[in-house]
Amino acid sequence: EKRFITKYLKDWREKMEGNNLIDGKAIAEKIKGEVAAELSLLKNSGTEPKLVAVQVGENAASAVYVKQQKKNCEKAGILYELKTLAADIAEEQLLSEIDKLNGDASVTGIILQLPLPQGMDMRKIQAAIAPRKDVEGVNPANMGWIVYGKPFLAPCTALAVKEIVDSTGIDLYGKEVVMVGHSDIVGKPVALLLVGKFATVSICHIGTSK
Question: Are 154 and 137 in contact (CB under 8 A)?
Fold first, then answer.
């Protein structure tokens, strides 16, 4: 197994020679700089951005993600609040909590931490987040704008893929692209964003024949 991995890495390095590697960290730093400039404009106009993360119950993976969210928000100068709810909260009560955040003028962004407790309708709860406060672009209205080719907000990973592709300077017009995966927050929105650039996109998933 070790010999196989070593050979794989050697072959990969040889294939990559002469190709340009994409520097994700550099792209991230560029975006952070742009965000800082926009935040300054917002604050000067009297708007104080605030992100509220809603977490239902406890989850180890989610806890790590929340910690990183808080760190990045503080570094950027965005107010951050974690709203932790009991794992046995009723779905209607959770919807009521989200509705309160929708109506709170001090809250400019809402993010729903996943996974939710078993039995809860994730899509129903995501759809309850006001489109203008839906920082992850998971509300059906925001997803719909991607279909129209005018994305207002889109899922974070999908936008990250688009940003990385854009950074290469490659014109996707007429290019053939293969999207592996068809999830609601990655595969489908990525495919739609790239179709918007007139790429010919094929989507492969668990049902795709070899």
Answer: yes
- pLDDT tens-digit readout, 46-86: 999 999 999 999 888 888 989 999 999 998 999 999 999 99
Residue entry with tokens 């293969």: 178
Distance CA 57, CA 68 (A): 18
Q: Is 83 helix (H, G, I), strand (E, B) or coil?
A: strand
pTM equals 0.83
pLDDT one-digit tens code per residue, 145-189:
999 988 888 999 999 999 999 999 999 999 999 999 999 999 999
Q: From CA 117, how far away is CA 85, in angstroms rounded?
A: 11
Task: Tell the burial category of 153 from Cβ atoms under 10 Å away from its Cβ (0-12, 13-18, 19+).
Answer: buried
Residue 180 dihedral angles phi and psi, to the nearest 5°: -95, 110
Could you tell me if residue 77 is left (phi over 0), alpha (psi between -120 and 50 degrees) or otherwise beta?
A: left
Partners of residue 109 on adjacent β-strands: 51
Q: Give the angle subtended at the CA of 38 by the CAs of 166 and 160, to the nearest 5°.
A: 30
CB within 8 Å of 59: residues ≥ 6 apart: 113, 115
